[in-house]
Design a protein that fits this description.
RNA-binding; five-stranded mixed beta barrel; 30% helix; OB fold (Dihydrolipoamide Acetyltransferase, E2P); 19 strands; BirA Bifunctional Protein, domain 2
Length: 466
RNA sequence: UCCCCUGUAGCUCAAUGGCAGAGCAAACGGCUGUUAACCGUUAGGUUGUAGGUUCGAGCCCUACCGGGGGAGCCA
């Protein structure tokens, strides 16, 4: 029986025999009995088991225990299990890195394969699972179809974000990669030797260079322009050389794409979605939220309740600039918002803020332009609590000529994008969508301050241990 | 990529340039029901790596490596 089931209905289970299986989180041998705390990963708290004899069980040992559930005579728990029969499923070696005392999140990152056994990571991952369920519930209710497009792609564009190349060849064998030194002369006649990639891609799996996707948006647009409203929870991959608390090389990317809606309606979907998730986790994961609130992230429950009740403010980019300037920040029209400005805005509005209608010059080629061709119909959702940008979305340019002009201007090659521009030739419709950092949202709902602590096995710059 | 902080026992951290330490964990023993139990004993170290300064370096200097934070960029 799962320990969470015991917590849910312990009153009806009292005085009956039950079987539990799990891992020892602490054991305290006395003269005649030993107190063992057992957890099976289903609940933030384990169950206290009373075992006859004074055998100590090493933290991490896996046990199967049959016994009677009784009311606990001591304080600290409502019920406990009196062991009748005990089977050691697996002994735990002395080298087990987890201790029964509190360990730092930093250090636990070295043991990603074991840290889920701690109360903290158990709670984080259960909440993340609940967020996932909430997501599918929400979009199904809204009539969205869930489809995950290809992850291996020919598209390397999307704002020049670093991409990972995919090959089936063993590039550790130099002859296959055929790296050669070649000489080039500059205008002054100065000779420099450069490594040239003479790799024959026609011999590779796809007969050309391909990449891991940085976003499923383009493919999703194609499906949306057939099925109306779609979403994905694909992984996206970015090879940026940055290690921060909010970046991963591989991250879960919630992306939605929908036809026949306006920018305002799109923002409303984002706001409704986040509030739906907040309500869902507060309902389904309240024990885990309380656990994190108490031991790891003070005020987490209040935060989630605030997200539900606070309206998300909406300002246009030009207003956002004015607000920042009035607060003494140095920023001009046409500049991107730094983290400092983002924080300034979420503080000014005391909550989440949509910033919309950014200058085209600093945004992507696919965003729908305004009539006067200076601003685009897009938005970023800025979150407080050190999260920053959680959603980026826009209406997509649905006019064939305008799209091609923007591609030219931004230096996007047309050939691999033909499928995308085709959509504007064959019954183009107004549509838009957004991308949301699913792991960043998990930070929001768990209080974790490092994104590496919201995924089971974080893969990040210079960090791929699993 | 840039800036800042940091690296001592399995973990958390001490040690004015002068003998390498404590608590927890581990192993063993004890304890009348414990709650991060408690008490006793034992074991545990190339102070991230490589150089340098010094009579003497965990401590000062340089480089590199790892970790964290911030910037930039993004989700």
């Amino acid at each position: 029986m799962r320990i969470s089931d015991i917590f849910n209905s312990y009153e009806t289970l009292l005085d009956s025999n039950i079987l539990v299986q799990g891992w020892v989180t602490t054991s305290r041998p006395q003269k005649d009995v030993t107190f063992v705390k057992l957890n099976d990963g289903s609940h933030p708290e384990g169950i206290q088991v009373i075992v006859n004899g004074s055998d100590k069980f090493v933290v991490g040992t896996s046990l199967q225990i049959n016994g009677k559930l009784v009311k606990s005579p001591a304080e600290g728990q409502l019920f406990e299990l009196l062991s009748d029969s005990l089977v050691v499923l697996g002994h735990c070696d002395n080298s087990y890195p987890l201790s029964k005392t509190k360990m730092s999140l930093d250090h636990l990152r070295n043991f990603a394969h074991l840290r889920a056994r701690t109360a903290t990571f158990g709670s984080v991952f259960r909440i993340k699972s609940a967020i996932s369920h909430a997501t599918h519930n929400f979009f199904e209710e809204k009539g969205y179809f869930h489809l995950d497009p290809n992850i291996i792609t020919v598209n390397e564009c999307e704002g020049g974000a670093g991409v990972f190349q995919v090959t089936e060849k063993d590039i550790s064998i130099p002859s296959k990669l055929a790296l050669e030194m070649s000489e080039t002369k500059d205008v002054n006649g100065k000779v420099t030797k450069v490594k040239t990639d003479n790799y024959d891609w026609s011999q590779d799996h796809f007969e050309k260079p391909v990449y891991l996707t940085v976003s499923s948006q383009l493919q999703l647009e194609a499906i949306a322009c057939a099925m109306g409203s779609v979403y994905t929870t694909n992984k996206s991959f970015r090879s940026e050389h940055s290690s921060t608390n909010k970046h991963l090389s591989e991250f879960t990317h919630l992306e939605i794409e929908s036809c026949f809606l306006t920018l305002d309606e799109l923002m409303q979907v984002g706001e409704d979605y986040i509030k739906f998730v907040a309500k869902y986790v507060l309902d389904k994961s309240v024990n885990d939220i309380k656990n994190l609130d108490k031991f790891v992230s003070k005020g987490l429950k209040d935060r989630i309740e605030t997200i539900i009740t606070t309206p998300f403010h909406r300002v246009k980019y030009t207003e956002a600039i004015s607000i920042a300037q009035s607060k003494g920040k140095t920023i001009k029209f046409g500049e991107d918002l730094s983290s400092e400005i983002e924080n300034c805005l979420t503080e000014h509005f005391c909550g989440p803020v949509f910033v919309s209608h950014w200058p085209i010059a600093i945004k992507s080629f696919y965003m729908k332009q305004d009539e006067d061709e200076t601003l685009c119909h897009n938005f970023d959702l800025l979150m407080p609590y050190k999260i920053g940008e959680l959603i980026g979305g826009s209406m997509r340019e649905d006019n064939y000529d305008k799209l091609l002009m923007m591609m030219k201007r931004k230096g996007v090659s047309e050939e691999p994008m033909k499928f995308y521009t085709d959509l504007r030739l064959y019954g183009s419709v107004p549509h838009g969508g957004f991308g949301l950092g699913f792991d960043r949202m998990t930070m929001l709902f768990t209080g974790m301050e490092n994104i590496k602590d919201t995924v089971p096995f974080p893969i990040a710059f210079r960090n791929c241990a699993y």
